[in-house]
Amino acid sequence: MNFRDLIRLLGDGEYRSGEELGERLGVSRTAIWKQLKKLEGLGVTLEAVRGRGYRVSPPIELLDGSEIVGKLPHAARRRLARLFVEMQLDSTNSFLLNRFSQGAGHAEVCFAEQQTSGRGRRGRRWETPLGGGLTFSLGWRFGSPAARLQGLSLSVGVVIAEALATQGVDIELKWPNDLLLRRGDGELAKLGGVLIELQGDAEGPCEVVIGIGLNVLSAPKLEGTEGLPSGCLGEVNQGLSRNAVAAVLIEHLTAMLERFGDEGFEPWRSRWNQLHALSGRAVNVKLGEGGYLATALDVDSNGNLRVREGDAIRTLAGGEVTLRPLP
Fold first, then answer.
1. Catalytic residue among 99, 121, 148, 269
2. Which of these is catalytic: 16, 71, 190, 242?
3. Which of 44, 159, 193, 292 is deepest in the core (most CB within 10 A)?
4. Could you confirm whether 121 is annotated as catalytic?
5. What SS3 state is found at 137?
């Protein structure tokens, strides 16, 4: 029995009896019952009604590789070398890093319906409800030195925002790699983030894996959100298709990556500053065990954030720096 087929049968909103499920999938009702327990263990909500059967509620739209590719324009299909859609992986970033070790990986994209060891920034775990979000990684090989890739994660944030705008959702960005939604009351909520891992020679070539976690229809559990609540795109557009969002993200990201090696961060700098959610706001800058209060300003040509502490202007690089907005 294919686990994906069971989810498809149960995820269309219709009730199906254990007997019908067994007949459709060619297994016993006992086997069906065991798989239903596994589904519940994955965080899927099952509704059971005596005399009618089972269904997944709310319905789940599983990712479909052929549907995603079918939604890509010709230029984006040309840029995409290979697309993987996996039911479960430990980490999509680890998957593509391994692909690079095998001589592949460039222009490859890997989606996973669930990650068992998904990583956020600074080693935090990222757990996504089945069917509720998008967790994926994109691999790219640059001929340029690693130093030329400064600001890449910020450029990724910009093109994600531009891609989501085509789906009727406007988002904002928080330095260095957070994707935010501004709710109607002005409250900021975290939609997701970007994690970039790089390997190769400092002088080039460099192999980069860009990991992205995005809450589409429900919010995942994320350890530590810098004081922000979790949110999802469905708060703004409940009719979003995960496959459509996946396709538009691939289209925009691969187009940016084709340019980034030659042009760097500068073409996306002004747009990032326009989308900067904390511009002009008081923030708590945390550096390891210490920190200080400052006012967030803008980012420079290398993607570093400028802040004002009293009369002094400081420049923050990535790494162990964390920003927390003050009320």
1. 121
2. 190
3. 193
4. yes
5. strand
Residues 6+ apart with CB under 8 A from 35: 1, 3, 6
Q: Judge whether 246 and 63 are in contact, CB under 8 Å.
A: yes
Of the listed 125, 281, 306, 324, which one is catalytic? 324
Residues 156 and 302 in one domain: no
Tell me which residue range forms the domain holding 288.
282-325
Clarify whether 190 is annotated catalytic: yes
Burial 131-168 (b: 16+ CB within 10 A, else e): bbbbbbbbbbbbeeebebbbbbbbbbbbbbbbbbeebe
Q: Which amino acid is at 184?
A: G
Task: Render pLDDT for 7-34 as a digit per residue (tens, 0 to 9).
Answer: 889 988 889 999 999 999 999 999 999 9
Q: How many domains does the chain fold into?
A: 3
- Which of 56, 74, 100 lies at the terminal end of a domain, its last residue? 56
Global pTM reads: 0.91
Q: Tell me: do 75 and 182 sit in the same domain.
A: yes
